[in-house]
Design goal:
Blueprint lengths: L1 E6 L4 H15 L3 E8 L10 H19 L2 E7 L9 H14 L3 E4 L7 H16 L18 E4 L11 E4 L4 H9 L2 H11 L3 H16 L4 E6 L14
Parallel strand pairs: 1-2, 1-4, 2-3, 4-5
Antiparallel strand pairs: 5-7, 6-7
């Protein structure tokens, strides 16, 4: 199965669904990890271009630990807009290139605009990618891919309808996030949070909810053409 995961920033997927992506890759699925923005504004210590380069290198390392391929759309932090026709076309091209059978992205009601805009763009693009007369650089995809929304930051206002057991892959998830050293510092300095501790607590809590040691929670996008009779999450 081809899996496309799209996060707003270079560390979002690692935080919110890294264990699931690592498990999918370990089971032989083809996984693409895309970050829409460059992460070019999340630093007190570096300029925009410098931190963007650092974060791309960190994301590449993290994806490698999962056995996934990294993709970057190159937008700027705080400037992801669901109504931007250029960004929509780029997202459609991403879908047409990856040709996913399943897509994972942000919940539409997460805590910041880049996350919610990416969610809207992914929902629009996965449909438009199948429309032949919506012309971009790549040929149309032949599947309106099912979408699964990953957990919100700290699980706020999010009630999972599906869980993935990541007990055997939590160490990989933690290693993937540890590759993002610049962001662990940024999140500590800007938000006063130890994100490695936070993902451990969240994964343990989701695990308690479904009877395993560590888990990640998801909600399926239940809109027309998205439904499926088979389980796609591992």
């Amino acid at each position: 199965m081809r899996v496309l995961a799209v996060g707003a920033h270079p560390d979002d997927l690692e935080i919110l669904c890294g264990g699931t992506l690592a498990r999918l890759a370990s089971e032989g699925h083809e996984v693409v990890m895309c970050h829409a923005s460059r992460g070019d504004r999340g630093s007190f210590a570096h300029g925009s271009e410098e931190i963007a380069a650092v974060r791309l290198a960190e994301a590449t390392t993290a994806a490698g630990l999962a056995g996934a391929r990294v993709q970057a759309l190159g937008w700027s932090d705080g400037e992801v807009h669901a109504e931007d026709p250029r960004q929509r076309r780029q997202m459609v091209d991403l879908v047409r290139e990856a040709r996913p059978e399943m897509v994972i992205t942000h919940h539409p009601d997460d805590y910041m605009s880049d996350h919610t805009a990416v969610s809207r763009l992914v929902q629009d693009a996965t449909f438009l990618a199948t429309v032949p007369l919506y012309e971009t650089e790549r040929p149309p995809h032949d599947v309106v891919a099912p979408i699964y929304f990953m957990d919100t930051l700290m699980g706020l206002a999010f009630e999972p309808t599906e869980y993935v057991d990541i007990s055997d892959h939590f160490a990989t998830k933690a290693a993937m996030l540890s590759a993002h050293q610049s962001q662990l510092r940024w999140l500590s300095d800007h938000d006063g949070i130890d994100m490695l501790e936070a993902i451990a607590v969240t994964a343990r809590f989701r695990g308690l909810q479904c009877g395993v040691r560590h888990a990640e929670g998801f909600r399926q996008c239940l809109r027309w053409l998205r439904g499926t009779t088979r389980r796609l999450l591992p």
